[in-house]
Design brief:
The structure holds three protein chains of three kinds. By secondary structure, chain A is mainly alpha-helical. Chain A is 78% helix and 0% strand. Helices cover 38% and strands 23% of the residues of chain B. Chain B has ten helices and ten strands. The longest helix of chain B is centred in the C-terminal third of the chain and has 18 residues. Chain B is globular and about 55 Å long. By secondary structure, chain C is an alpha/beta fold. Chain C has a domain of 226 residues: P-loop containing nucleotide triphosphate hydrolases (Rossmann fold). Chain C contains ten helices and twelve strands. The chains are: A mainly alpha, B alpha/beta, C alpha/beta. At the A-C interface, helix 9 and helix 10 of A face helix 2 and helix 4 of C.
């Protein structure tokens, strides 16, 4: 199959995913008890007040009409206005998103820089010091929750030894600790995948053939095996990056960073339905886009595209 | 056993090489007389196995009919078809995947017998007899497949096929994975069984030499079609189709070598 | 160099594999000489030690499970088994090269065919990138893949299995090796393709004057390709002779039984010969002839006295007490 058809297929899947998630979000919010109109109006509102708010929110219309209206707007990236601040949800999200994205990207970079080289080395030299370092790191990474690591890092590197700021997001330095807490946990998983993938490739027949060709050890490991080993890692990294965005939301709390996480948390506290809806769908879109990008990248890099 | 105009069209299932609407078996008609060994020879992908599966209605043919003992299999309802299918058994190339690794030999062999309601005493007797018949000591019947060699496993698979008292056996490359000395034992066994139990075989192989040794009639399959069919001697002496000639010329070491 | 001297010589090679406390005697004193411009067929059943012989020559035995107990492999007066890895590496692919059974697995899926040839000639022959590409093109032409330039830029999965095997052969001969090992190179192929590959190997041998070790379980294939044949049983060469001599007058009962166990159209209905009993348990090391427990001719001395591989007729060696005498099975 050619690349164009592949991309088209994946795009279709992306659209379907977003549609499905939008649908779920829409209905789940309407199933949860608690009429937003009542909430906004307060206890001493008259029925007419409430009706007015309902009309404003559009919740007085039939569910199907609301649903299709919602989908139509989602298609235009219009999630309505926040019930609290009355600003457009999209604008609110886009305002906060760069910080979260920067955090996730930096976390990804830190995670990759830790995971891939150690993963490769521990596969190439099993039972060596590298392998043990890798093993301990992946255990720790999976066992320690990132928010705990964040608090710990804050205590050590911002309070005891103040090299990094305690909060705020004014400089890149302020992102280092949160990005590290975020990246470390994901690095654990990436490291395991890298090690497994690399050792699998090293045990394959073409490695024997490469030895029979008289290639140097370095060529065999870091050219022949590595290229094959990194291919599946692209997909894993894509998924990891998606998680990273989700994880950023918690880490933002720990480090008091004004990113998407705080925005959504407030939205949930205040039952700001349009904002919650918009936030979930937005994250879903970003997540799908990242996976889509990873898939496309994978198929471009991998000559042997295995499609379905 | 008759096949008339069998066609099997694969609707592109994404399996490599299978294009949309690929005719894996294209208008094949064969007739196998009772008590004969009918050889079907061809290279990988020629449609041999697809034809075998179509004959047994494991994968029903897209069109055409299969007559077994004068009865058209396609016209039978599932319970009747199952009854007929018992009389026709198939043995595949790979005895490793044919046996459930978690079932003992005894369990594998008794499964079918339990299904048709044979009581335990008769079951045990039958299994003992069949294992002896294929050269596996019945004291091994409580062992698992992995405790046997490949050749022994193929014997067990043969014994399992025989539990149903079949009249017709399809042998799909039954000795291809075996060493020559083991291959010879299995072939001898198959020849003895055929004689003793008055079986009819459809013998499928890529090895023209082996097929000519075993079979009374040979059909050469290429690209889903039977390109030539003749009694073995005639086929070897006067191959008519260029592909048959090519196959003959490709027998390593030459035909009639040892 | 003396033309009659062997190009490569294996002497008394003993190899043992240890796995989970179990020790398997894979090779029990192999002796073979390979000559320039000759295809030497090594035939035997699975587990007989064919591939271990090949990997021993290449220095590719899996470590640490494999252990060379004794023996030597001489190439140009040097014992390859004693050679440090760094030096041996310069022989692999350059002087001694290998073709494997399943090209789909032994070609690297992530690199183009051209690149897989180029890296080798650049490393061993010091060619520039441009010269390497030209060499790759020339080689592909030589193995019959040159009709269009497509194969050069193709990935292995884009080629048919026959083409893959041709590509692997092109890689193996890229540095004009003196000696080529082909380990069941046609076993995974259809018969018509097999015929073509066998022909190709023969042609290439003639062009390059290589010595070839051709390994197969199939006596028919061996008969088709080999000039000289060695029969291996339980890690030992039991018979070695020129092709005509071996097929006309096999001296070892095992060789004879192998031949008789192959079905043949001319003998339809006749029972095939079988070899009674089981292949020798590789964990044991019995006295005497290893084939004795299965041999119809065996007598008392066969179980105590090990028959040596000796020349009974010119160029015809056999390791059997009955060799050189007339016998019937």
């Amino acid at each position: 199959m050619d690349l164009a058809r592949f991309i088209a297929k994946r795009l279709l899947r992306l659209v379907l995913t977003v549609l499905l998630i939008s649908t779920i979000v829409f209905f789940v919010i309407r199933v949860i008890p608690g009429d937003p109109a009542l909430l906004i109006a307060g206890i001493d509102a008259t029925p007419s007040d409430i009706a007015a708010i309902r009309a404003k929110l559009g919740t007085d219309r039939p569910l199907s009409a609301q649903y299709f209206d919602f989908l139509w707007k989602v298609a235009h990236l219009d999630f309505g206005n926040s019930m609290i601040s009355e600003e457009p949800v999209t604008a609110l999200i886009l305002q906060r998103f760069p910080l979260t994205l920067a955090l996730a990207v930096l976390g990804m970079v830190i995670g990759t820089v830790i995971a891939i080289p150690i993963g490769i080395l521990s596969a190439v030299k099993p039972w060596s010091a590298w392998d043990y370092v890798g093993l301990v790191m992946s255990q720790l990474g999976m066992a320690i929750p990132s928010f705990w690591l964040g608090i710990f890092l804050l205590l050590v590197f911002a309070v005891k030894i103040p090299i990094f700021p305690l909060f705020g997001a004014e400089t890149l330095a302020s992102l280092v600790l949160p990005a590290f807490s975020l990246g470390f946990a994901r690095a654990a998983i990436l490291l395991r995948h890298t090690r497994a993938s690399m050792s699998e490739e090293l045990s394959k027949e073409y490695i024997i053939a490469a030895k029979a060709k008289g290639l140097t050890d370095r060529m065999i490991k870091y050219k022949h095996a590595l290229k094959n080993a990194l291919l599946p890692i692209i997909t894993v990294a894509g998924i990891e990056f998606g998680y990273m965005l989700g994880g950023a939301i918690i880490i933002e709390q720990v480090f008091s960073l004004p990113g998407l996480g705080r925005l959504f948390l407030y939205a949930i506290y205040q039952r700001d339905f349009p904002l919650i809806q918009g936030g979930v769908v937005f994250i879903a879109i970003v997540f799908s886009l990242v996976n889509f990008a990873a898939d496309v990248l994978y198929s471009v890099v991998n000559p042997k595209i295995r499609l379905e | 056993m008759q096949c008339r105009n069998i066609v099997k069209i694969h609707r592109g299932r994404g399996v490599e090489g299978e294009r949309h609407g690929f005719r894996a078996v294209d208008n094949v008609s064969i007739e196998i007389e009772r008590g004969r060994i009918f050889g079907l020879v061809g290279e990988s992908g020629c449609g041999k196995t697809t034809l075998a599966r179509a004959i047994l209605y494991l994968d029903p043919p897209t069109s055409g009919s299969v007559l077994f003992d004068g009865v058209e299999l396609g016209s039978l309802k599932p319970p009747m078809l199952r009854k007929y299918r018992k009389r026709m058994q198939i043995i595949f190339q790979d005895p490793h995947s044919a046996l459930d690794p978690r079932m003992t030999v005894y369990d594998s062999l008794s499964e079918g017998l339990i299904n048709i309601g044979v009581d335990k005493a008769r079951r045990d007797k039958k299994i003992r007899e069949l294992l002896d018949r294929v050269g596996i000591s019945s004291t091994y019947s409580r062992r698992f497949p992995h405790e046997f060699s490949t050749g022994q496993r193929q014997r067990i698979v043969i014994a399992r096929a025989l539990t149903m008292d079949p009249e017709f056996l399809i042998l799909d490359e039954p000795v291809s994975n075996l060493d020559v000395s083991i291959q010879a034992q299995i072939i001898n066994l198959l020849m003895d069984l055929k004689k003793d139990l008055n079986l009819t075989y459809l013998f499928i192989s890529h090895d023209l030499n082996l097929v000519s040794y075993m079979c009374d009639v040979v059909a050469v399959m290429f690209g889903g079609r039977i390109v030539e069919q003749a009694p073995t001697e005639a086929l070897l002496a006067h191959p008519g189709h260029p592909y048959t000639r090519r196959l003959l010329a490709s027998i390593p070491g030459g035909a009639g070598r040892f | 160099m003396d033309e009659s001297a062997p190009l490569l010589k294996i002497e008394n090679l003993n190899v043992r594999f240890s796995h989970r406390g179990k020790s398997v005697h894979a090779l029990r004193g192999i002796d073979i000489s390979f000559y320039k411009d000759e295809i030497h067929g090594l035939v035997g059943e699975s587990g007989s030690g064919k591939t271990v012989t090949a990997t021993s020559i290449m220095g590719l035995l899996p470590r640490p499970s494999a252990e060379i107990i004794s023996g030597s492999v001489f190439y140009k007066g040097k014992n390859l088994l004693l050679m440090p890895e760094d030096e041996l590496r310069t022989y692999r692919g350059r002087a001694i090269s290998m073709v494997f059974q399943e090209p789909a697995k032994y070609l690297n899926p992530a690199f183009k065919i051209g690149g897989q040839i180029e890296e080798m000639v650049m490393l061993h022959m010091g060619l520039s990138k441009v010269a390497a590409k030209a060499r790759a093109r020339e080689l592909l032409k030589l193995v019959g893949l040159g009709r269009d330039g497509r194969v050069l830029d193709a990935y292995p999965h884009e080629l048919s299995s026959g083409m893959k095997q041709r590509a692997m052969i092109a890689i193996a001969i890229s540095c004009n090796p003196d000696f080529l090992i082909a380990d069941e190179p046609t076993t995974a192929l259809d018969v018509t393709l097999q015929k073509q590959i066998l022909k190709l190997i023969r042609t290439l041998k003639n062009i390059e004057n290589m010595g070839v070790l051709f390994i197969s379980h199939d006596l028919g294939v061996i008969r088709e390709i080999a000039d000289r044949i060695s029969v291996i049983y339980a890690g030992k060469i039991v018979e070695s002779a020129g092709k005509e001599s071996l097929f006309n007058k096999p001296m070892h009962p095992y060789t004879r039984l192998l031949m008789l166990s192959i079905p043949d159209a001319r003998h339809r209905g006749r029972k095939l010969a079988t070899i009674p009993g089981q292949v020798l348990d590789a964990t044991s090391t019995p006295e005497g002839c290893l084939f004795a427990p299965r041999c119809p001719l065996a007598e008392q001395r066969c179980f105590s006295l090990t028959p040596e591989l000796v020349e009974h007729e010119k160029g015809h060696l056999a390791a059997c007490h009955f060799a050189g005498k007339s016998w019937n099975l």
